[in-house]
Design goal:
single chain; about 550 residues; alpha/beta; Luciferase, domain 3; GMP Synthetase, Chain A, domain 3; 18 helices; globular; binds 5'-O-[(R)-(benzoyloxy)(hydroxy)phosphoryl]adenosine
Length: about 550
Amino acid sequence: MKPLSQVWPDEFAARYREKGYWRSETFSSFLRARAAELPEHVAVVGGEHRWTFAELEARAENIARGLLALGLKPGDRVVVQLPNIAEFLAVVFGLFRARLIPVYALPAHRIVEITHFARTAEARGYIVAASHDGFDYRTLAGEVQREVPEVTHIVVVGEGGPFTSLDALPTGDVDLPPDADPSEVAFLQISGGSTGLSKLIPRTHDDYIYSFRASAEICKLTSESVYLAALPVAHNFPMSSPGVFGALHAGSRVVLSPSPSPEVAFPLIAREGVTITGLVPPLALLWLQAAPATTHDLSSLQVLQVGGAKFLTESARRVKPVLGCTLQQVFGMAEGLVNYTRLDDEEEIIVSTQGRPISEGDEVLILDDSGHPVPEGEAGNLLTRGPYTIRAYHNNDGANARSFTPDGFYRTGDVVKRTQDGYLVVQGRATDHINRAGEKISAEEIEDHLLAHPGVFDAAVVSLPDEFLGERSCAFVIPQGEKPKAAALKAWMRTRGLADFKVPDQVVFVDAFETTAVGKVSRKELRASLRRRFLEAAEAEK
Ligand code: OOB
């Protein structure tokens, strides 16, 4: 099994400890501390469950014992694919307690993504919900096990069917291992997948706990706060910015919403007195639309965070008047760096920037294409390193060579400007992925699938501006033989076992792609030119 590591050079690690960023806490040690300080305080509300900190810890311990009794061994990687249910937290804290390594998949992922994660992480376990949103994950688990037989242990939250149910884990007399070393990798997060398939991101206890502890401070969380996880909790934003972990670390209550829609989330806000939550821009727009007519009392809400994709200034301006709460813009990435507008910033900064970094230890470079710093205030490529930004992906030398400079800066692929006060304004990006309502889609990955269709000679996938989604995906396709219908091609994509959000929103057939006199243009130029010409033609038709 490829060892897990995330190594900062010694002098950096020493500095991060000396500055008090890394405090040698682990997931298990912080939960134990909260359970000791606030045993009766309700920590997690999800579905029918209301668990105190003491109950959450006890459940995590039982799950830890059960998973080890089942045959998993400390160090084994376990793909976790659970929706926003209370068990998500019991399971992941259980995994941490057993020194098992969660690999976080989103509920939208399907066979293609899960087998990729299982193979790259060399997972031995897979934990799913029986079903969610009309999809039966046990069927998916069966397929995963057929394709990757090394995944020997499947555990189901709910009715297990052919697999072990979480409630029926063995209760064997197993000793739990000692706590992890805080500099060890705690879990694998998945990347937004800007080129090709998602990469796996090893995060240590030290670095990740710092990021959410500091985020909770920036968001002024206390044991009185109530955090609503509306977005899928396995994503880095609702997980750690400050997310469910930052909330629990601060002794706050976490409420898990099975859906981010106003119909589901608004009654929960009213019932639980939610004080803070986070959304992607399209959902924030939906909430702004629904709030004026709602009969639910949203007055407990103090902070609405918006991030994952650019929130336009004109929409941002509406948050305070319509929802009566403070907007916080969040610009982050699963690889590390997270920026926030601060709660007491002037309104103009809040509505027109994507915030500034969490930490004084975050180093930010804004460089032109030849690697030189751009003049103050101009747009350039964002590179970063710091106490919670990774230095390498797991098991992916090619991506590591492309994504990190020799001195350890992560190339984010984002194009930003920096204001005089150090706030970042996102301008766009240098890589060809589509940011569809905060879900990142790799153009390359989708093109590869399209090329597998017999009626497709060549394909180029680009992002187009979309009023609601921010960006939608458009596939330009050169057909061959019998030209497929756009709807049929989309339907076929749906059978490929991909997350649904990756199916192109639009398909445009073209006769040829442009080539230069010398030969083929690069994929990047080709995508840019297809996009430009399509938008010009659309503009001309208006
Ligand atoms: C968050 O994480 P990822 O890993 O899904 O995606 C990261 C990318 C960034 O590199 C940037 O391209 C884009 O998403 N992004 C934004 C943004 N927030 C993220 N682009 C414009 N404006 C924003 N506010 O998306 C993520 C992780 C932690 C916290 C928040 C978001």
